[in-house]
């Protein structure tokens, strides 16, 4: 059950467009920086497969220049 | 007992978010996400933000605490702090949430006929003072002891030292930093003649390689690790994790290299061998700035009471050292370290490449080691042989665990052998202390007495008859608590515990004193990079809670030492600091004046003419260098650092047929040490509600153990039953198990061994032999 966080760097001048397209993806939670061109994306998926599909979808977003993985957690079943 | 999956997911999301914020801030200094927090806070009205350091780890992040109606309602990272640039880890963000805990100690409690009775603080302090005095009169000065903390503030440590060493005249003062940093101190003193790292966190922005030695920074120093990750992403800096267990740090690193416990000594020597034999030694640096020395060998493990050891340094020449290293060829070492020849050569080549800047980081893995001093010496050897030291991005860097292990334990010197400047064995240092403290010089004893393990053994033997602990929870954190818990329960010792919350240690106290928490008092901490950080009291504490420094002063006054403690309640922190910094005047260790500390979010010592010294011993940065050369290791009389010949020696207890596993213990990101604070923070407690025993999947399969099954971990000293964790947070190697020690209900320290490094006297919590049984 993967939870990941990324830094999404938009193409020049496309931060708002990137935010708009990311906002429409249900498994993504966003935290845009207020004074820099970068958006934090937290993804929450149920399976590795779904995670992979989501990653390809993100990689193909037109307004996205670069997507950098920061952390990946697989929620364990118990502590 | 287990957390629901949904709240755990929520928490993990928060961690993922915090990690991303941290990484982003490293990339874009001054980046603002805080809007999120501030928006939440704004909903609660106008907040007043007050600055201070984080209560928890030795990274020493700057925090801003949002105060409303006299209550702390929010915490955010201080964007002005050079340490964390506005970021915090999960513990940092949630730290103030423990203050309001329902079981907070708000009044003094005195045990009467087996029951704790709420008692006015004045009366409790009268009792503490009279008991201490009476014990001294009956049994002598060395029958009373104080045990303090690397979480005590600088003024708290200072007045404890002054009371014990200056006023009473006993060296029976030690602190829990003995359990975490003593080997680093002994390593610095033996190699450089001066304690604490020469570099600073700015090294992170310059290094090409970070080699972490037995150090899970992703969980223990998360903000620094994020800064390293950011450099990895931005500049391609590389992280190499050299450890006995696969952790979050290993998986985030470029390379993870695993070694058999204790063989780090041999691998470090093999790296030195490779550096010399491949011609990578920086000859001119070594000739100008280093001496070669050997110490004693087969030095023991301190397992018996009253163990004594004194090292003997004998000068040797380079050829003798080179000859010694012939036993440590990569081929020979690979056989018992389980590190491949290729990996040893890979590590050596990184250090040996003159065009690569390398920082080595370590913390408990190297320090909690029966040869901890040697391990510290050996990593210095690598940096000295290559001349990669005291320059931006090049250096060995021992990280501290506690927020003021450097500031209080090491700089103020709350160890039995220390004084605020220097050591008790040095007449000059005793004379300086006597002068500043205004006490007769003869009163300060010249001989150290009990280091931590020996102090609690002395309680057990009945030699110590009064002990006062402050800001620490030894009955969870000591090794072999199976011996020391019954020891403290004995009638022969009167136990005073000063704390914020009840703990297993306060459970055995005769008097419990209600301490102020961090932001309920003013204070000063010193972090891992020699940064001194001051904060003003932010809120009032509940009931009769009182700063530890003030309780010590009140007891001192009641014992008749009032003239030595002429401080005022309102300004004692400032007054004590002004007195304390007289010890460190000069270019080598000058502390910043209070007004600079108040203005800035921390200042690094030596603070000379209004400037922090970022890299010590390097003439380009350090005004104390005066030998006319590029480097000056002025801690040593001849200005040269020492390359020590230190061999591999085995651990005192190794897995065998009856006890076939190594036991390693440590920490988790959610909890601060013994968990007395963080287990009272709901979000952290829910995320990690109990300790566990990690096993390798093959071992688990052999024993028919699945995740969550209860497993009894047994050593010759005791046992602890805890749920199994397989392939979750960390992955021990085959033949090894790991347990965190934060959980007072699952006491893994009943199982550990109280062997210690004979030089530093720091216990080894990382290695002993156990067997396991599925329950
Ligand atoms: S990294 Fe350490 S100092 Fe920084 S917020 Fe976390 S616990 Fe506090």
Automatic annotation (TrEMBL), chain A:
Organism superkingdom: Bacteria
Q: What is this protein called?
A: Uncharacterized protein
From TrEMBL, chain B:
**UniProt binding sites for substrate:** 741
What keywords were assigned to this record? 4Fe-4S, Electron transport, Iron, Iron-sulfur, Metal-binding, Molybdenum, Nitrate assimilation, Oxidoreductase, Periplasm, Signal, Transport
Does this entry carry the keyword Ribonucleoprotein? no
Query: At the top level of its lineage, which domain of life is listed?
Result: Bacteria
- What does the record list as GO biological process? cellular respiration; Mo-molybdopterin cofactor biosynthetic process; nitrate assimilation
Q: How is it modified after translation?
A: Predicted to be exported by the Tat system. The position of the signal peptide cleavage has not been experimentally proven.
Is this entry keyworded Translocase?
A: no
Signal sequence coordinates: 1-34
Residues at which Mo-bis(molybdopterin guanine dinucleotide) binds: 91, 151, 176, 180, 262-264, 364, 368, 473, 498-499, 521, 548, 665-674, 749, 766
Q: What is its EC number?
A: 1.9.6.1
Q: What subunit structure does UniProt give?
A: Component of the nitrate reductase NapAB complex composed of NapA and NapB.
Q: Which family does it belong to?
A: Belongs to the prokaryotic molybdopterin-containing oxidoreductase family. NasA/NapA/NarB subfamily.
Can you say what this protein is called?
Answer: Nitrate reductase
């Amino acid at each position: 059950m993967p939870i990941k966080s990324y830094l999404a760097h938009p193409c020049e001048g496309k931060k708002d467009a990137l935010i708009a397209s990311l906002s429409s993806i249900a498994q993504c939670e966003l935290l845009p920086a207020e004074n820099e061109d970068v958006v934090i994306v937290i993804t929450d998926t149920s399976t590795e497969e779904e995670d992979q599909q989501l990653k390809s979808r993100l990689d193909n977003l037109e307004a996205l220049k670069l997507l950098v993985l920061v952390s990946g957690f697989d929620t364990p079943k118990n502590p | 007992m287990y957390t629901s999956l949904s709240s755990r997911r929520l928490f993990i999301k928060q961690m993922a978010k915090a990690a991303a914020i941290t990484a982003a801030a490293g990339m874009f200094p001054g980046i603002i996400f805080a809007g999120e927090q501030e928006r939440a806070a704004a909903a609660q009205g106008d907040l007043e933000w007050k600055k201070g350091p984080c209560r928890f780890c030795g990274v020493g992040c700057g925090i801003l605490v949002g105060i409303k109606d006299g209550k702390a309602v929010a915490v955010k990272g201080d964007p002005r702090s050079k340490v964390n640039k506005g970021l915090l880890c999960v513990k940092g963000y949630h730290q103030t949430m423990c203050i309001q805990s329902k079981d907070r100690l708000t009044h003094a409690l005195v045990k009467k006929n087996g029951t704790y009775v709420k008692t006015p603080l004045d009366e409790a302090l009268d009792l503490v003072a009279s008991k201490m005095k009476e014990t001294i009169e009956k049994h002598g000065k060395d029958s009373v002891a104080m045990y303090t903390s690397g979480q005590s503030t600088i003024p708290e440590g200072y007045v404890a030292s002054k009371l014990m060493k200056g006023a009473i005249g006993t060296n029976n003062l030690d602190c829990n930093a003995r359990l975490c940093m003593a080997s680093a101190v002994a390593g610095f003193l033996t190699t450089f003649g001066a304690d604490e790292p020469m570099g600073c966190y700015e090294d992170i922005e310059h290094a090409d390689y970070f080699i972490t030695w037995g150090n899970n920074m992703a969980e223990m120093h998360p903000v620094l690790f994020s800064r390293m990750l950011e450099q990895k992403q931005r500049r391609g800096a590389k992280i190499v994790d050299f450890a006995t267990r696969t952790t979050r740090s290993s998986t985030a690193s470029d390379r993870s290299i695993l070694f058999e416990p204790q063989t780090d000594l041999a691998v470090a020597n093999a790296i030195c061998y490779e550096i010399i034999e491949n011609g990578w030694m920086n000859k001119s640096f070594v000739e100008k700035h280093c001496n070669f020395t050997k110490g004693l060998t087969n030095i023991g493990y301190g397992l018996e009471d009253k163990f004594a050891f004194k090292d003997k340094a004998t000068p040797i020449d380079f050829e003798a050292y080179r000859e010694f290293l012939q036993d440590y060829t990569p081929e020979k070492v690979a056989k018992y370290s389980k590190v491949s020849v290729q990996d040893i050569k890979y590590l050596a080549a990184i250090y040996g490449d003159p065009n690569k800047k390398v920082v080595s980081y370590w913390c408990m893995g190297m320090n909690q080691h029966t040869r901890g001093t040697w391990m510290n010496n050996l990593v210095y050897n690598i940096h000295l042989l290559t001349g990669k030291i005291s320059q931006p991005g090049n250096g060995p860097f021992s990280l501290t665990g506690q927020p003021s292990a450097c500031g209080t334990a090491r700089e103020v010197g709350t160890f039995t052998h220390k004084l605020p400047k220097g050591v008790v064995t040095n007449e000059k240092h005793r004379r300086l202390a006597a002068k500043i403290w205004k006490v007769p010089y003869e009163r300060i004893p010249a001989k150290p007495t009990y280091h931590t393990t020996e102090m609690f053994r002395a309680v057990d033997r009945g030699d110590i008859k009064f002990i006062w602990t402050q800001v620490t929870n030894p009955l969870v954190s000591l090794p072999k608590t199976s011996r020391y818990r019954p020891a403290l329960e004995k009638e022969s010792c009167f136990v005073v515990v000063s704390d914020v919350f009840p703990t297993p240690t306060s459970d055995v106290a005769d008097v419990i004193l209600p301490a102020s928490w961090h932001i309920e008092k003013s204070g000063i901490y010193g972090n891992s990079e020699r940064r001194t950080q001051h904060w003003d009291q932010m809120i009032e504490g509940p009931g009769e809670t009182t700063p530890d420094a003030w309780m010590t002063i009140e007891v001192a006054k009641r014992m008749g030492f009032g003239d030595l403690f002429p401080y005022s309640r309102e300004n004692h922190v400032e007054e004590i600091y002004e007195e304390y910094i007289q010890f460190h005047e000069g270019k080598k260790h000058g502390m910043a004046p209070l007004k600079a500390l108040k203005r800035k979010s921390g200042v690094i010592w030596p603070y000379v003419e209004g400037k922090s010294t970022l890299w010590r011993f390097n003439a380009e940065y350090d005004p104390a260098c005066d030998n006319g050369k590029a480097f000056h290791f002025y801690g040593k009389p001849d200005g040269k650092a020492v390359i020590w010949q230190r061999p591999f020696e085995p651990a005192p207890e190794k897995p065998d047929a009856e006890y076939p596993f190594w036991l390693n213990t440590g920490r988790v990101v959610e909890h601060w040490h013994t968990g007395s604070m963080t287990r009272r923070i709901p979000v952290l407690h829910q995320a990690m509600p109990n300790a566990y025993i990690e096993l390798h999947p093959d071992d688990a399969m052999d024993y028919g153990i699945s995740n969550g099954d209860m497993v009894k971990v047994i050593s010759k000293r005791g046992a602890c039953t805890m749920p199994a964790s397989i392939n979750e947070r960390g992955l021990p190697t085959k033949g090894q198990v790991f347990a965190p020690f934060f959980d007072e209900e699952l006491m893994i320290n009943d199982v550990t061994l109280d062997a210690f490094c004979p030089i530093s006297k720091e216990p080894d919590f990382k290695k002993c032999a156990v067997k396991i049984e599925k329950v």
